[in-house]
Amino acid sequence: MIIARGRQAVAGNARLVAGVFMLALGALLGGCASMAPQTRLLGQNGLPPGVPRHFELKQVPFFPQDEYQCGPAALATAMSAAGVPVTPQQLVPEVYLPERKGSLQIEMLASARRHGLVPYQLAPSFSDVLTEVAAGTPVIVLQNLGFASDSWHYAVVVGYNYDRGGLILRSGETEREIMPFILSEMVWRRSGYWAMLVVPPDRIPVTAEQNRWLAALAAFERVGERPRVQLGYQTFLKRWPDNANGWVGPANTYSAAGDLTEPARVRREGLARAPDSPVVLNNLAQTLSDQGRDQEALPLIDRAAASEGPFAEEVKKTRAAIVAKLNGGRSSASGN
């Protein structure tokens, strides 16, 4: 659990940060590359393919943070850039904890969902941060600017210059802070390289891994409006149509609304893409059974039952219910 406190931490440690940077630079040049391993790799391997050497999102808004409230300011910056105009003051009740004078990462993620955006925690990779910024998406990073003690702070990466070796940040009361890669990594590394971004449901981050993005959509589904959730799943399936689990979510959103026809259509389409998926087979069989079409459901659930795996128990229950209905409501002890 990390609480980011903001402006006072930034101001109180500014001179220490500058001094430590000089020490870190000397250490890195002197061979102590373990202090900033990602910076070293970025220098050795260069930028990812297609990523320009310098880039800046100049139109990203800037919200000077109030005392201790770097979380609301950073989140308002990212959300406004994603098309949801909001001020830090509007977000304070959602993410700021007065008793702790800061914001938790979990609240930052949850607040974005409540406003119709999908938050995504990036892989702990400097290259991924630069790739996302170059694709037009600002990235929130969690830093620890303290040296004698912890001093957590959220900043927003809006650009970089590879040749000069620095990030461009919206941070604290500074609209365009330039921070060298080495120092950026040192203060970011202390959070476990924690970074997030927010996007509308019809966009997928360039660096998103399909199963992690699907998990992000599932979390969004719990609070998001149904049309926006469905849009998110539709966008997912355009990019990864062969992901069997990707066909589960959109069908479930229709079922939750009491629609039985559309889930069957979606699940049949999913089955065409993943004919051996026990999840898709089970869910389609259940949908058909709910429509009273148990004769059609039985061969599907039998196919699912032939697959051993983590869903075997759920498949067994679905099959038993279908067989019981076919037997006129009498359960079958053997399940046959």
3D structure, described in words:
The chain has 336 residues and is of the alpha+beta class. It has two domains: 193 residues, Cysteine proteinases (Cathepsin B, Chain A); 117 residues, Tetratricopeptide repeat domain (Serine Threonine Protein Phosphatase 5, Tetratricopeptide repeat). The protein has 14 helices and nine strands. Strands 1, 4, 5, 6, 7, 8 and 9 form a seven-stranded antiparallel sheet that branches. The chain has a two-stranded antiparallel sheet with strand order 2-3. The chain is elongated and about 70 Å long. The termini are far apart. 43% of the residues are buried. The C terminus is likely disordered.
Layout: helices, strands, pairs:
Blueprint: H1 7-29, H2 37-45, E1 54-56, H3 70-81, H4 88-95, E2 96-97, E3 102-103, H5 105-114, E4 118-121, H6 126-134, E5 139-144, E6 152-161, E7 166-171, E8 174-180, H7 181-189, E9 195-199, H8 210-221, H9 226-239, H10 248-256, H11 261-273, H12 278-290, H13 294-305, H14 312-326
Antiparallel strand pairs: 1-6, 2-3, 4-9, 5-6, 5-9, 6-7, 7-8
